[in-house]
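Hello again, I could really use a second opinion on something today. I've been staring at a protein lately and its backbone has me curious. Please have a think about how the structure follows from the sequence. I owe you a coffee for this, so here goes:
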Amino acid sequence: MSLLDTPIGRLDGSAATLGELTGGQVALVVNVASRCGLTPQYAALERLHETYANRGFTVVGVPCNQFGAQEPGTPNEIAQFCSSTYGVTFPMAAKTDVNGATRHPVYDILTSAADPEGERGDVQWNFEKFLLTADGQVVARYRPEVQPDDSSITDAIERQLG
C-alpha cells in the first residue's frame, strides 16, 4: 500500500485516505496542537495553503496529543479552535498518534524520511512538517522550530509545483 492509499480519518470522523486529504496535490503534512507554544504556526500554515492552493498545493493538519497533552480537545473543539482562531481552511485529519506503539501507519512511513541533518525516526514535537509530492513521495522533513514560511519550505514547495 502506498502512503496516499493509507487510511486516515478526517477530523469530522469520516473515513478517508491520506490521498483523499491531500487531494492528489503537493502537500505539507503537519502534526498540530492547539495549546502549544508553536500553535501560532497555524497562521503561517494557513497563509501557505492560501498562497499555493491554486497551484496544486495543500496543507494537511494532523492533531496529536502526544506532546505535553497539548491537543486535549474533542474533534469539534479542535475544528472550532482552528476555524475561529486561525481561519484554517486546509484539511484536518482525526487526532492521531505519531510516535510509539500506537503510531499511525502514515507516520510509520513519514518518520522514515530524514531531516536536513540526515536524522530519521520519531517526531520531535508538535508542528513537525513533511513535504510530499503529488504522488505521495516524501521529499523533505522539517523539524518543529522551522517556521512554515521559512524559505527552505517555500523554495521546496515552489520546486515541487514547478
Residues 43 and 87 are 8 Å apart (CA to CA).
